[in-house]
Design goal:
With about 100 residues, this protein is α+β, with helices and mostly antiparallel strands. The chain is built from four helices and five strands; from the N terminus they run E-E-H-E-E-E-H-H-H.
Length: about 100
């Protein structure tokens, strides 16, 4: 895609999923832990306005939505409490593995 601030960038075809600069390696290939999109700080699961999100541990005002791909990566999915993870799997239409 073409961006307002970068000449080009990669983005997932699913709305609200992810994006990265053209020269940045894919996070899944690197197994890089999910980070705050604004400051690259560590994130934790939280709720904001009754909706699940990732909250930055460094600055609680930094929040980002949970994307479907976050639930398919075991390391990231494990950061979400089991009860909430089950609700999110259902909402995204993902069948949990046995």
């Amino acid at each position: 895609a073409a961006g307002r601030h970068w000449p080009f960038y990669w983005r997932c075809v699913e709305k609200g999923c992810y994006s990265r600069t053209i020269d940045q390696a894919p996070a899944a290939a690197e197994r890089e832990p999910l980070r705050c999109a604004r400051c690259r700080g560590e994130v934790e699961f939280g709720m904001w306005g009754g909706k699940p999100c990732w909250r930055c541990r460094s600055d609680r005002r930094h929040r980002q939505p949970i994307a479907k791909t976050h639930l398919t990566t075991p390391e990231t999915a494990a950061r979400i409490p089991a009860r909430e993870r089950a609700k999110l799997l259902k909402a995204f239409g993902i069948t949990p593995e046995p």
